[in-house]
Amino acid sequence: MQEALFQYLLRLGDDSLILGQRLAEWCGHGPILEEDIALTNISLDLIGQATSVLHYAGEVEGKGRDGDKLAFLRYENEYVNALLVEQPNGHFGDTLMRQFFFDAFRKPLFERLIHSKDKQLSAIAEKSLKETRYHLKHSSEWVIRLGDGTEESHEKIQASVEQLMRYTAELFYEDAVDEHLQQQGIACSLIEIKNEWDKTVKEVFHEATLKFPDNNWKFEGGRLGRHSEYMGFILSDLQYMQRAYPNMEW
Description:
65% of the residues lie in helices and 0% in strands. The chain is mainly α. The protein has a single domain (2-244), classed as Up-down Bundle (Ferritin). Helix 4 (92-113) runs antiparallel to helix 5 (119-147). The two termini are 33 Å apart.
């Protein structure tokens, strides 16, 4: 069970870590001051979540790796984040659509993980849920504002849907790791979360006057360590200090 729990925690932690790194790229570049601050704060929330999860993952692994080593000293194919979170920021609408898809997944996930029989995972989920509720409120309101805004903003955010929807199926990927932990009462069913995700996305899209893509393309592989061409560039920034100055601590 320890190995399954370790892999499960890596998925949670890597999703938060990589998306937090992506959002950090907006610092100083937001379209307005309030959003510059908002995106930076969400980035900090996600990195905080990643810190908690990855430190716990290191304890579960029991091989002397703490959260910092897991975050900064793995190779690309050892990261198991979903492909969605590593996609480029693009324009503001791209970033908010990526965030909305992720938030609509993470909120019901944390709501269920609060009831996990693993007390530490439950505590992490309880703290993270408070932040994630705000994240979803923020991203969904912006999707509606852009979708039901000007002709230009509608066209851009609709293009964001067309580009990013193909990466969302992987959020609900399940394998033997999930099945084992579900049987132990530690993890939750992603099928139930998918139903809630569908409901949230449909409601927001309806209000935003957005349409679902005509195709059913699905891009997967991140959970198995197969990443897009963008991942290496993310890691080159994320890992630079620790690679240049081994064992450096703040």
